[in-house]
Structures are given as C-alpha cells and as structure tokens.
C-alpha cells in the first residue's frame, strides 16, 4: 500500500488515497511508532458525491474521528500537490459536514491552507471532576480549561481523566489554555483516542471561541495560538471559525499490509 506521511504543526498522520479494508485495525498497526510508520492516526482520501473530496480520520487507537483541523489542511495539500485537482478552493466532505478550504500555493506546491471550520457551539462553564471547563462543539467535542501556565498544566493525567469522564459519553478532546497577551494564547492538548499531540486544529478553534466568551480575546480578531508544534491563526466571528496554518509532506513510501 502506498502512503504519504504528512504533518500540520507536528500533528502527524498517514495519508492514503483509497479505501483499504478494516481501516480501524490498519490505523492501529500503522500508527505504532516502533513497529509501524508512526503517527497520530490514519487519514483516508477519496472522491465524494457531495463535495470535491471526502476524508475519513482514524485515531491511533482505531476509533474514527469526525474532524481534524490539521488533517484537513494536509488533505488539501495532498490532492493539489499530487495532481488530483488544480482548484485552489475546495469542498471536503467530513463526518462533521462539508468544510471549505483555500489553498495558498508557492512554486507549484501548497504551503498553507485556510479552512472554514463552520459553526462553533460554545457552552456554559461547568465543573467536571474538579476541573472548571467550557464545553465546545466544533463538529467534534472539546473541553477547554483555562490555566495560569499551559506549559506546566497536567495534560497527561487530567486530560486522560476528563476524556473518559461519564459527562462525555463518547470521550472528549481536552485543551489547556493560558493567555499570553490580548489575542495571543498558549494551548496544549490531550486528543481523544490519541493522547498528547503536538497540535489540534479543531481544539485551537474551540480554545479561541472559549477565550472570546471569557473576554480574553476579541471577536473578529485574528488570534495567534502557540501550540507545541507551532502557531495557528484563528478568527472567530458570528459563531464561525476560520483557521489558517501550514501543511507539510514528511515522506512517502510503500508498506506491506
């Protein structure tokens, strides 16, 4: 099977064009960083009946995700760089609806992608297992908690605990966020099904939306969010989020499945 390893701010996935059998088990096998290719999961790309392309995302534990912000940027780069399309504005079908991409091309290759993430639903702050958090829906579930210093936050222990809390029957992504300045945030993340990752696009959008609700960021401003893997920029306005960030090919190859 041919594959392409790609990353968006260190959130790395294995990309395959087509529909291999048993993708859940395949994702577990390929994502293993010692015995497989290594990654946060598997992304499958195919043509769509309702959009230009369709993406399916499987986490490293085999569970299927509805949406991945860093992953969908890489999908845009994959289909353009490989010649599946010459369009720089694309519609991509996901389990959380159709998302719209704008590709920024330099010397014939996509360097960065802006994604219209659609509606973001921000809930009221609540306390879950002793942690104050704001639930946010970005097509997938998030729990945003504001801390004094995200670099020192107990992402592993608390993130793992909140992900499996009965308050979130299907699990939840957990973001630990601190404000560095007006319209500048620091975020670390525990991703549902994958654990600590270098970045999370949907989590970044959730964090900005929650920060606007908290009064830490301005609605309509381009907010800079510093992640372990780099910087994403998000504009949250009128209940919608626009995310812009890089996408990069790491390597390509074949693997016997």
Keywords summarizing the entry:
19-stranded mixed β-sheet; 4 helices; 18% helix; 257 residues; alpha+beta
Overall description:
By secondary structure, the chain is α+β, with helices and mostly antiparallel strands. Helix content is about 20%, strand content about 50%. It is built from four helices and 19 strands. The protein has helices spanning about 25-30, 70-80, 155-165, 200-215; strands at about 1-10, 10-15, 40-45, 55-60, 65, 90-95, 95-105, 110-120, 120, 125-130, 130-135, 140-145, 175-180, 185-190, 195, 220-225, 230-235, 240-245, 250-255. It has a 19-stranded mixed sheet that branches. The chain is globular and about 45 Å long. The mean pLDDT is about 95.
Fold topology:
Layout: E1 2-8, E2 11-17, H1 23-31, E3 41-47, E4 53-59, E5 64-65, H2 69-81, E6 89-94, E7 97-106, E8 109-119, E9 121-122, E10 126-128, E11 131-137, E12 141-146, H3 155-163, E13 173-181, E14 184-191, E15 195-197, H4 201-214, E16 222-227, E17 230-237, E18 240-246, E19 248-254
Parallel strand pairs: 2-3, 4-6, 12-13, 14-16
Antiparallel strand pairs: 1-2, 1-19, 3-4, 4-5, 6-7, 7-8, 8-18, 9-11, 10-11, 11-12, 13-14, 14-15, 16-17, 17-18
